[in-house]
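Please decode residue identities from the backbone states below.
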């Protein structure tokens, strides 16, 4: 075990939490270099059916020639593909894992909530994505951060959890990351869409990139402000990964960003944690949506005050996990329609 990689003991499993000393080491790694990996969080018995499902779903997507919308915006071979949202593919080890939630609470505080449950697949002979981050700074000036009681650079209000269903290696296209770049405050002055390629002196200061390798069943807890990119999968096997993103209790937008709410809306959100500011600007139900047969997975004991933020639909409604991964709730609720990437296909 190195200083970024941690393992779970039998005692910690019994208690449903990592020891405080280990949580502090994870927090130190996360804050200083932007990530920490915890091994063995999800058993192979849960991972294997999901791997099979992802590979089947990739075949369905490839029934249609051409690039997906996500590939057009990033790079060929990188699919934004959500995991199936019905039984037996949603298990408590995924969405109500006490060890994972103990880490999330350490990094974000109690009341953190699940805001994103999706996946991505790096296919063989994929291309190279441009460098990017997944979340901007919540406070973009030192003055604003200090006024909010934050340090500078401020800590993140969001944690990305990347679950390796099978071992993720460099050969399989492990994500390229720039450790420490999550603390690069110069980016707060850049205009929308600005790229590091235009700032070679900054990239040089970040040092050499690393590969986000993760053992099977392990989770990489990553600061989403860290610069990274998808790279080529040199193997002949698609590499799936599940992504869970958690936001701090202060984040009242469905995507986890900080917003200024009207006093009336703020009071409503305090009374009902399912309420979030939607992209439309209205206050509404910001929960993720799943088929009702997986509700028991979310009802597992909650030891760390994490809000699992899920709602459920009953037949004849179902969730099409191929569609609307980045929109409200992730996945599209449909009726009388097949769960398929091209539901109107012949």
């Amino acid at each position: 075990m190195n200083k970024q990689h941690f393992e779970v003991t039998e005692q910690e499993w019994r208690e449903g939490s990592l020891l405080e000393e280990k949580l502090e080491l994870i927090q130190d790694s996360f804050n200083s270099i932007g990530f920490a990996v915890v091994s063995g969080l999800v058993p192979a018995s849960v991972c294997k059916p999901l791997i099979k499902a992802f590979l089947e779903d990739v075949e369905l997507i490839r029934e249609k020639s051409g690039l997906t919308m996500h590939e057009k915006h990033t790079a060929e071979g990188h699919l934004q593909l959500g995991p199936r949202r019905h039984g037996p593919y949603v298990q408590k080890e995924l969405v109500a894992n006490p060890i994972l939630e103990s880490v999330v609470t350490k990094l974000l505080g109690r009341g953190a909530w699940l805001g994103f449950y999706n996946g991505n697949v790096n296919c063989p002979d994929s291309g190279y994505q441009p460098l990017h981050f997944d979340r901007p700074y919540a406070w973009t000036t030192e003055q604003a951060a200090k006024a909010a009681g934050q340090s500078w650079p401020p800590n993140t209000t969001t944690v990305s959890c990347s679950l390796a269903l099978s071992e993720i290696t460099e050969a399989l296209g492990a994500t390229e990351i720039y450790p420490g770049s999550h603390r690069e405050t110069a980016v707060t002055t850049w205009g929308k869409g600005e790229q590091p390629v235009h700032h070679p002196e900054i990239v040089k200061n970040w040092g050499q990139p690393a590969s986000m390798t993760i053992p099977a069943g392990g989770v990489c807890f990553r600061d989403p402000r860290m610069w990274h990119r998808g790279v080529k999968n040199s193997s002949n096997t698609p590499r799936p990964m599940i992504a869970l993103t958690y936001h701090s209790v202060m984040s009242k937008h469905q995507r986890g960003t900080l917003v200024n709410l009207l006093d009336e809306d703020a009071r409503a959100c305090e009374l009902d944690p399912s309420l979030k500011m939607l992209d439309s600007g209205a206050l509404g139900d910001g929960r993720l949506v799943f088929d009702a047969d997986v509700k028991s997975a979310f009802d597992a004991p909650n030891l760390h005050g994490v809000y699992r933020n899920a709602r459920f639909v009953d037949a004849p409604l179902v969730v099409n996990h191929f569609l609307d991964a980045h929109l409200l709730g992730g996945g599209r609720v449909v009726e009388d329609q097949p769960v398929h990437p091209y539901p109107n296909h012949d």
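Observation: The chain is about 25% helix and 20% strand.
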